[in-house]
Specification:
Helix content is 10%, strand content 54%.
């Protein structure tokens, strides 16, 4: 498989990502081409208006298996949409936009907010966020994280 055409990133089926605008560093995300929209774990979701701008405040547990660490996030609302989960159930969810950083690359993505406490990953990175930017190698994990760590070692 070649990346020559568009210089696309190659990602594994799971990657460490950052959402700096939300104050979230090193979130373990499942790269899920079966999901259209990216999803982020959120609870105690509260929408409000601030100077005429619709916003949402939510809490999230950034670390898998750790419900004691809580981060409070605030973002502008882009939309509210019906989202169908993997079980076929529909739920109205707030949609926000946020910069996403994987390795040294950053771009804006849309994210829906939903409780993922019972899920293995705090975030799903959906195919809309990947379109035109990345290919997924399902046999690999943490491709971008490994590259970043190796670069630090090389700078001795």
């Amino acid at each position: 498989m070649s990346n020559c055409d568009n210089e696309l990133l190659t990602l594994g089926w799971r990657e460490w990502v950052n959402l700096p605008q939300l104050g979230l560093d090193r979130i373990k995300a499942k790269v899920d081409t079966g999901a259209r929209t990216s999803s982020l774990h959120a609870f105690e979701i509260r929408d409000f208006e601030d100077a005429g701008v619709q916003r949402v405040e939510f809490k999230m547990h950034p670390n898998q298996h750790d419900n004691n660490t809580v981060v409070v996030c605030v973002a502008d609302i882009v939309d509210e949409r019906l989202v169908r989960d993997s079980g076929g159930h529909q739920e109205k969810r707030w949609i926000i936009e946020s910069p996403l950083t994987i390795g040294t690359i950053t771009w804006n993505i849309e994210i829906n907010l939903t409780s993922r406490d019972d899920m293995r990953f705090r975030m799903l990175l959906g195919r809309t966020a990947l379109r035109g930017r990345a290919l997924v190698d399902p046999a690999r994990s943490y491709v971008m994280g490994k590259q970043r760590r190796n670069k630090k070692k090389d700078k001795k």
